[in-house]
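If it is no trouble, might I ask you for a protein's amino acid sequence along with its backbone structure tokens?
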Amino acid sequence: AATKLASAEKLMYFCTDQLGLEQDFEQKQMPDGKLPVDGFLLCVDVSRGMNRNFDEQLKFVSNLYNQLAKTKKPVVVVLTKCDEGVERYIRDAHAFALGKKNLQVVETSARSNVNVELAFSTLVQLVDKSRGKAKIIPYFEALKQQSQQIAAAKDKYEWLVSRIVKSHHEAWPNVSRKMQPAPEYQDYVYLEGTQKAKKLFLQHVQRLKQEHIERRRKVYLSLLPQALDALVPDLDEIDHLSRAKAEKLLEAKPDFLKWFVVLEETPWDATSHVDNVDNDRIPFDLLETPAAEQLYEAHLEKLRNERKRAEMRRAFRENLESSPFVTPGKPWEEARSFIMNEDFYLWLEESVYMDIYGKHQKQLIDKAKEDFQELLLEYSELFYELELDAKPSKEKMGVIQEVLGEEQRFKALQKLQAERDALILKHIHFVYHPTKETCPSCGACVDARVEQLLGSRFIRPAEQQRQQHRNPLLDSNIDRINLVILGKDGLARELANEIRALCTNDDKYVIEGKMYELALRPIEGNVRLPVNAFQTPTFQPHGCLCLYNSKESLSYVVESIEKSRECTVGRRDNHLAQLPLTLILVNKRGDAGGETLQSLIQQGQQIASKLQCVFLDPASAGIGYGRNINEKQIGQVLKGLLDAKRNLNLVVGSTSGLKEAASDADLRVVMCLMCGDPVSADEVLLPIL
């Protein structure tokens, strides 16, 4: 209770953190000489102490206060350890203060740093009356404000740490130096201290490390199925092994080190390997984790399922081969109920069985065709009495089918009548025109193979040059017809489907006893778009069928032809300008909008004249409302395209012959195939060149 002290050259303050380390901290000493005391903080511990009676403590405080009151100096009662305070003790302390005149009480907690500064500022205000009066806040209200302030400061500090610290390798000394100028760091350290700031930093670093480890774990686990597929793809090799023996087997594989790494230290996430992002080899001890064990079991299950699916595919093929209900050309819908069982559906999708069935059908059909061809050769006497043009009458075809009808090889193609008839026609054509083109063996014909063999070894320079510059569009030796079908509102697709129905299963069509490959390209949209172009890198058109059934569809045909020709103007390969066209009125639409059948015919004739193409009206083509082009008319159209194709090839071939002749200095006269007169090479070639 003394008001005058003498303590020269003593430290003004210190804390327990500084004990033994005083020289490391800033030092402030007491003033020299006497030190006057201006006021007192009377501290009362309101926590529950062992072997301590609070009533006796309060008596001591009361006696002490009586001594302080004699000094006439301001006194503030400070209740300490309120964070552990006993409610009765706090209430009794307030009752003690109320019994004294103008004695103020401040509830504090040094541990929580609540109202500590308020206790001193309250005393300062009592000493210096010029200062504003401090508002005394109860402990719990102050604690709430303090908590809110700390929480806000903590959020800002954590944001600062997350912005500065991006790697789990960062150290606290370096980071704290970077953060010292930041107000977020200063505020939080002021409220909570450096140790708590460091603790939050370490938590953030640990979180970054765990996130990095988890990313690496996901990378390793994503590679593990690939490693197992590469090292142990055979179920028989691992199905009977325990996990330990399976790991030994993996280590013995030649490519083991390509996929795995055996670390000297474990676990893998505590080694430097986790930071080697350029090395994605899987730590071998990762296989001991539950996630890796699940992937290993999934690998085993996958191999077992694959084996079961392979068994199902094999059983299904065997079922197909042994089933009497599967015959050449039988649709899947008809055969499914006879060959499928419940086990098949459990393991594979129906599309897989359909694919197997399709391949099996192709084998059946090819074998049936081969057998039928042998049958035709065995009954060669049936084809001797045909006329020289090899066009059998309906009666003769009936006789042929009647004679062959009892043969099983004939019946095998019962569901492929169109293809069977095509084979008969092709055989007849071969009997009267036995060439490599009409040979039933097709590409396996000995004549064709000999030609190919000789041609691949003995090619004349001039022939080689012609082959290099040959235009596949104009090559008449190719047994293929590329046909564009132009028409809007479904007309093109409908006619394409009807033509395909007349073809064999492999899109072949018989013209004058000869088989041609027929490729159809129906177009119904804007021809300037690549998807609707007449000509593509894999499709060179030989002709175009232009369909219309109204004024709008006729306008679409005209605009599309003009656009296609415009797109190729000036190009060296401008084949579309010479493309044969056939304009067809496919049906009539009544009188809607003033249109009649007669007016549509007249408009079609005018457009055909403008486009210089063939026009087929309903009367000549056998077409009417709801009726489509018949088979005879389609054959006539395709034959016309073949003739036009040959003529075009003839013209271009003559020009190429002139160019070859011009390159030969000794040859002065050539035969111009376009006019048939012998002329001077200079007279013909100079204008052309």
Observations:
- The chain has 25 helices and 15 strands.
- The mean pLDDT is 81.
